[in-house]
Amino acid sequence: MALQIGAVAPDFEAETTEGKIKFHDWIGSSWVLLFSHPKDFTPVCTTELGALARLKPEFDKRGVKLMGLSVDPVDRHAKWSEDIKETQGAAPNYPMIGDTDFNVSKLYDMLPASTSGDPLTRTAADNQTVRNVFVIGPDKKIKLVMVYPMTTGRNFQEILRSIDSLQMTAKHRVATPADWKQGEDVIIAGSVSDDEAKTIYPQGWKAPKPYIRIVPQPK
């Protein structure tokens, strides 16, 4: 059974490129983007890790920590980082887990519980289910899950857009419509009655239908 939105993100201890961490302690009061890749020295993931390194200031602005994961050992991550810098213009500037015992991959339902053996003998195809994105809130709960195939590079602009929505809707009782971007109008959540909405939005709202109540994005 895959982890569901709203579930507590499993805690774990792991070796990373920045030392040993205990995940929940490492999260602290931040948001987290935990993303996985099936194998070091693979082409699509090389572009992704470089893209994330270049975008790290955008995640920093939003109070989001980045954490990568592969079943390969930490020393291979370090070697791969050199290739990423050379080909993508930026090396990973965030920790990457060396999940050599498959513990984290199993906890997050990316590999079967029966998985065992030497991670270095496994191919990317063996680990193709390890292509996930988890956005985790400061309450340690999973807010969003995305799963990508090996041949489709991740869209980190969409992930940033989703985080903008998640963070705003966590503070305000609103929802974001299709293709919403920061600064655009939002929708009053269905859990808010019209009487409550009049108190929260005394200036009123646009309602093309009674169940679609549109207001400017809350400040």
Automatic annotation (TrEMBL):
* Active-site residue numbers: 45
Which residues does UniProt call coiled coil? none
**Where is the secretion signal located?**
none
The organism is Bradyrhizobium macuxiense
Q: Which GO terms describe its biological process?
A: cell redox homeostasis; cellular response to stress; hydrogen peroxide catabolic process; response to oxidative stress
- Thioredoxin domain: from which residue to which, for each copy? 3-168
Q: Which UniProt keywords apply?
A: Antioxidant, Oxidoreductase, Peroxidase, Redox-active center
Q: Which family does it belong to?
A: Belongs to the peroxiredoxin family. Prx6 subfamily. Belongs to the peroxiredoxin family. AhpC/Prx1 subfamily.
For whether the record's keyword set contains Oxidoreductase, the answer is yes
Q: Which Pfam families match?
A: 1-cysPrx_C, AhpC-TSA
Task performed by this protein: Thiol-specific peroxidase that catalyzes the reduction of hydrogen peroxide and organic hydroperoxides to water and alcohols, respectively. Plays a role in cell protection against oxidative stress by detoxifying peroxides.
Q: What is this protein called?
A: Thioredoxin peroxidase
**Which GO molecular function terms does the record list?**
thioredoxin peroxidase activity
